């Protein structure tokens, strides 16, 4: 009702799982859409795997984001899945400052730009300043 009365932007922040979004979060998005609410973006909180884990953690993150994008496109009722990217944001969550190195930060920034994500941010422990600078360049 408020969106009908005035400009009101609605955002969801949801936890990203290896398979995308969980069923309860998708149900909440569908119910919101059924009620006529326009959701401007969904921010995906993605816990970064430890650097000591198996190789390919950014590939696994990308795979989880793609799975969520497909789920969101269906939840939004979009005919073209490509339209969902501008309504999707990615927020890796760092447990330690060293959880993200410069090459990985560049890859994340390139991914955000290539897909036209709504935004890219970080949560958790503050990264090294050079990592922050790389990620902030996606906002230019």
Structural account:
The protein has 140 residues and is an alpha/beta fold. The chain has a single domain (2-139), classed as Alpha-Beta Barrel (TIM Barrel), CATH 3.20.20. 41% of the residues lie in helices and 15% in strands. It contains five helices and four strands; from the N terminus they run H-E-H-E-H-E-H-E-H. It has helices at residues 2-5, 23-34, 57-76, 102-115, 129-136, and strands at residues 11-15, 41-47, 88-94, 123-124. Strands 1-2-3-4 form a four-stranded parallel β-sheet, with helices on one face. Helix 2 runs parallel beside helix 3 and helix 4 (102-115) runs parallel beside helix 5 (129-136). The longest helix is centred in the middle third of the chain and has 20 residues, at 57-76. The protein is globular and about 45 Å long. The termini are far apart. The mean pLDDT is 89.
Write the layout of secondary structure elements.
Layout: H1 2-5, E1 11-15, H2 23-34, E2 41-47, H3 57-76, E3 88-94, H4 102-115, E4 123-124, H5 129-136
Quick synopsis:
The chain has 140 residues and is an alpha/beta fold. It has a single domain, classed as Glycosidases (TIM Barrel, Alpha-Beta Barrel). It is built from five helices and four strands, in the order H-E-H-E-H-E-H-E-H.
């Amino acid at each position: 009702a408020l969106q009908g009365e005035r400009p009101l932007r609605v955002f969801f922040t949801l936890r990203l799982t290896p398979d995308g979004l969980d069923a309860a979060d998708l149900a909440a998005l569908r119910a919101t859409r059924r009620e006529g609410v326009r959701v401007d973006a969904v921010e995906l909180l993605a816990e970064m795997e430890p650097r000591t884990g198996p190789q390919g953690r950014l590939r696994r993150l990308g795979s989880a984001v793609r799975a969520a994008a497909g789920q969101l496109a269906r939840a939004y009722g979009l005919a073209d899945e490509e339209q969902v990217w501008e309504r999707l944001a990615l927020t890796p969550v760092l447990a330690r400052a060293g959880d993200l190195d410069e090459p990985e930060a560049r890859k994340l920034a390139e991914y955000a730009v290539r897909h036209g994500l709504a935004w890219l941010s970080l949560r958790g422990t503050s990264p090294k300043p050079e990592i922050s600078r790389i990620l902030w360049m996606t906002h230019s």
